[in-house]
Amino acid sequence: MKKIFLIKKVKLSLLLIFAFLLFLPKTIQLRADGGVGYKGIYINNKSTKSWYKVHDVDWNYTGCGDYQFKHAPSFDGVNFGKFNPDDKLEIAGFAVVGWTNSANDFVVGKLQYKIWKERTPEPDAWTGHVTAGNYDEPCGDKSWQQVCSSGNDRVMGYIDSSLDIKPTEVGIYNFKIQALGRVNYCNGSFNTNDGPFMTAKFEVVQPTGYYYKSEGNVTWTDPSNWKVSTDGVNYTNASTAPSSVGEGELYQVIVDEGHTLTLTTNAVTPSTGNFIVNGTLELGAGGSVSTAPTYGVGSTLIYNRDVTLPATEWPRYSIEGADYPENFTAGKFPHNVGVASGTLKIEAPDKLHKQYMGGDLTIESGAIVEFDMNQENEPRDGDCFRVAGNLDNYGTIRQTNINRSAFSCTNFTNHSGATTTLSGDAKGGDLVVYGDFMNNGDNASAVNINGRALIFRGTADQTLGGSAPGAYEIDYLIIDKDGGVVTVEHDIICDGEGTDAGASNSGGGSITVMGNTVLDLSDVTVTVSEIGDAKYWSTIDCKDGGKIRTNAKTVLNIYGHQNNNTGNLSFDQSEPNVTNVIGQLNLDRVGGVLNFDNDFVVADKLQIKQGKLNGGTTASIRLDALAVGTLSSTNTTAALEVKDLVFTKVAGGEMNSAQFYKNGRTLTINGKVRTLVDFIQTDNWSFVSFPYAVTAATTLDGVSATDVSLGQYNAATRAQNVSGWENAVFPMEANKGYIVHKGSVGQLYFDGNVNGTDAMFNSTRTLTLTYTPAEALCNAGWNFIAHPLSVNGIPSLTDGEFAYRYDPSLDEYKLYFYQYNPGYSYTAGAAMKPFDALFVKTPNATTLNLSYNTATPQGVLRKAVKQAQAVIPDEIIRLNLLAQGKSYETLIRVKSEATAGEDVMYDAPYSTPMQVTTPRMYTLINGTAYALNSVPENTTIPVGIRVPSTGEYTFTWEKGNEYQAVLKDKTAGKGIDMNKNLSYTFTVDAFGDINDRFEISVPQRTITNVALGNDDFGFDVSVAEGTILFNNLNAPAQISVFDVAGRLVEAKNVTSPQAVFNINRSGVYLLKVVDELGTDQIKVLVK
Which are the contacts of 554, defined by CB distance < 8 A and separation ≥ 6? Predict the structure, then answer.
């Protein structure tokens, strides 16, 4: 084919143009190397489609494919005929032929049209247009619509349009067009070749026949409540039913809003456009229609028969063409659908046709909707059945066979008494909701999605909830949204399983959150898979911007023995320290990995039993003040990798602190350890220290704090009977005790350059203590140290070693004393906590080691440290002073080895509170205050107090000591039997120290009501001449031997299964054995 220059016969015009062009700059290219040829229009005339030529050019090109219009009749002068209002007259396509020899040339065309009634003025503007290619900017958007070509000849066009151009008003119409074409050369110039104006005609006529319109509820075979007309304007009461109208004479049937047409026969209905249901169409047994109705908004289709498949009354739609996916033709499908009785079956016959409805689906009690949508080629979440409105199930929804396709709705509600069961196959049968999911059934399994997916889509906020009791089992929970929040209001279990163990699923984890959306798991427990099960997709996966929102009540359990699947957590950071806080996160996945890509806070428990939780080098974890983190003590695969591991410590109150049990597993810290100290009061110093060196305290913004003061303790000064407190400055030394004061409430970071292999994560740790001598033994041997571990600790102390933990809530020091009181068992909050500073007093000049033995339970949370087992307590009298709504204590220990004076190995000095106004409670030895006073029997112990004001105060104690101890109030002249009473209230007339008013007398111990011996003690006792022999003791144990008068003959603490007592005199003796199993008493005769 040759180039087209469009040479015309008017030579004068060409010469003038040529002369004008001579004066243009030579750098401008004026012609494109190509041309435009003939053009055609594709007309749909009552469902018959034909080409018409709208611009004829003498080219030798042969048409291709469906674009055979070179020899088509001319559009000009065509009369398309007469049309009823519901007949089709459409522009179904347009094409233009062009020629180019360059890849930068673009052939495009545009068809303009206008339609007006004959004998009325022609409108100035075109009614509309269609294009082939981007006519206005062909080089801006190089989007071709080329459909076929031959050499350099190209056909641009399409034939899948459905542009309706027929008016509804009766009359004769002119249909005028002009086809435009151009070849554009992207460097600046173009050739055009526009077709002539052409005009065709058509006529819209008034149809003939009978028009029926309901006036109430109607049937097909009864004229009652029908109105009839022959022109569609003037109606009268019908005397014959629609079923009696002759073939071809029934033109229109309208069921008005609020009326019901009930069909129990086969109804020959008019064309779709003239069978209009604005009310209700009810199909009973035997009822059917011959044409699909046009459904009005608010209309309802009701099925009320045994078993049925949607037929003519409910056409399927094709997923190809302009109707897919969202622009469904109004009225083409039912609006509301009700299943009143029987079974409605929904099938997907092939992958190209689906079922759609524009409103709500209601399934009544006793009715069934059954899905059988087995489409191999459907995508995992392809919805073959669409409910544009809400789905309310009062009956039964079930899926038979293998369902590969999904069904969708806006709000889904399973009501009381209803059941919904999805396919157990892992390849399809999902439920897609664009609104809320509510299970109000009788139990959680009333909606059974244990095998398939519940998918949330759209941009609106949505809810997963309902009133059904129990945890919802949902095999896959997929959040695939472009915005909005999905709020889970019910505990859920997501297995990621299906009948083939989930091996065929390709959608991600059991819980998948993707897109610009948030899954809100606040206040609920979410469990992924089951412990010990091997599920291929049993994890949680946040991707493509998807986030989860949690709070301090959220529990997230990620189980399942699948080591080939990697999940990912991404927490909502919209409100840091609020929306990214999680109560518990439990991971148990053998060798599986769960990544997290941003920071989160644990309020309660982080437990990694198996598998790895991985934040890499970018994401950190903060453990809140009551949180416990644990790597398994039994499974070696447990591992954690983070950027920073952040502990929270409260300075004030009970000084709560986060804990982390490494248990010898792999802990990788790519950044640093940080402690976020929350200073909740400004009137006290806080006993806060660290097992690592701290350069400076910084604010949350990373700026060095300016309102922080440090103090340290000088043992040498204390040894001289002077207060040991003195100022200190940064940096803070590792494992050294400090007191810290902040000028205002708030939080500060104390960072340490340590990693996961640091000794602070060990289960035991040894610190070297020093001894500073003093003239007064109560001032000697003081050490001020930091609790060296990342968990609560129990000190291992020997005779003469005493540990003191400061309790700021009481402004009092809590006492630990060797093996008889490890962990301060009688006070729940008195464990030595991470980042505490504490005092330890040693008894002599020997360098001693202090070891901390951590309790290593798997995931024990918020429990007080247990008293060590196999420990025999001495007889302890714990005396409390109730003052200012708080309880202050002192301890008296009855110990045979002790003296009434100062015993460096048995007596613990009293440590003075930080505030002078704090009430005090202590005993006195030679005028010196003691927190623990060990005495032998038959001793009187002075008791001292300090009270801040006059008034009424109370002593309390625990009943049950074996000594008939008596509390004496010398001022009041009273003696109180401490075995018969539990408290004593007294009045103080003058505030200050009171050291000479109260005392406790401990008499010689006597034993009464001794049980007779029996044979079931768990140990063996034999008596030889002058000897009592014990075997198979549950050591350690404490054994006491008394004579018949109740006097103690001998007592021993034994650590082996055997013990021997040499008794010099014959007689009856009482034996008391105390071990961890309890107390046994037995009477024996010694010869």
Answer: 521, 522, 523, 524, 525, 526, 582, 583, 584
